[in-house]
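Input structure tokens:
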């Protein structure tokens, strides 16, 4: 299965959530999200980080946060929690009738709008015990520094990691930033303005793709990207699209956030 994950999106949503935590729950979330710094400092850091992300007409990144609350007299979140997330995460606050199917559609419409219509649904239905949603939506749209023309598009044979072959539409180009780590080769392709880049890696012949993925670690990965060299690369990419969905509960518990999932 393909994977499509934004660590930044996950970090922002979980940090908003952490602002409502206390005791062991807060300590565990601070340790995972801030790696030892306080939640107050993490809020300031993330605010500054998001504000500093390059944004232009040709490379647009849209980040939006929202909190949806069940509109019931018996449920009243603390004002400090809501205000902190409004101040540092610009979180819009919505009170809604969670028993209405229209509320699920309102949430989906909000996500659809803030991902430039790339994600049209995040909630199927709202369960009776749901009190709150904390949602981050992120979308990136970028124009290439060296754009593709029609002459660069054509059919070719795509060979999957299983060895199966099929006809696919490819976009072809000559790139100038070469990547190599002994197990794979690839290239960097900058977006307009050179603030963001796309990169692709292809395992060498005879190296299983799963073996290569399992060998990647943060430090070696950054070393590979930062070690890009100026060399001519003939690049050929099949046109593709995919979506992905995952529940992170078990992953978060494996990373030490356990109290948050304990009903007692």
């Amino acid at each position: 299965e393909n994977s499509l994950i934004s660590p930044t999106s996950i970090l922002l949503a979980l940090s908003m959530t952490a602002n409502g935590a206390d005791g062991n729950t807060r300590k565990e979330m601070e340790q995972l999200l801030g790696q030892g710094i306080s939640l107050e400092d993490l809020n300031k850091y993330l605010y500054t980080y998001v504000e500093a992300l390059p944004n232009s007409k040709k490379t647009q990144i849209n980040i939006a946060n929202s909190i949806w609350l069940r509109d019931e007299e018996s449920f009243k979140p603390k004002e400090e929690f809501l205000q902190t997330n409004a101040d540092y995460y610009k979180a819009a606050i919505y009170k809604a009738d969670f028993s209405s199917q229209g509320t699920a559609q309102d949430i989906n419409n909000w996500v659809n709008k803030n991902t430039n219509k790339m994600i049209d649904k995040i909630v199927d239905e709202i369960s009776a015990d749901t009190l709150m949603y904390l949602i981050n939506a992120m979308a990136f749209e970028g124009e290439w520094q060296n754009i593709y023309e029609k002459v660069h598009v054509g059919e070719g044979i795509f060979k999957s990691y299983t060895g199966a072959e099929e006809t696919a539409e490819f976009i072809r180009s000559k790139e100038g930033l070469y990547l190599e780590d002994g197990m794979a080769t690839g290239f960097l392709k900058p977006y307009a303005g050179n603030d963001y880049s796309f990169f692709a890696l292809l395992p060498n012949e005879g190296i299983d793709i799963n073996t290569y993925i399992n060998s990647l670690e943060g430090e070696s990965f950054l070393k590979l990207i930062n070690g890009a060299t100026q060399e001519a690369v003939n690049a050929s990419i099949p046109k593709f699209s995919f979506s992905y969905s995952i529940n992170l509960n078990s992953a978060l518990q494996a990373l030490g956030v356990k109290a948050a999932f304990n009903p007692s």
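The longest strand covers residues 165-180. Residues 113 and 120 are 8 Å apart (CA to CA).
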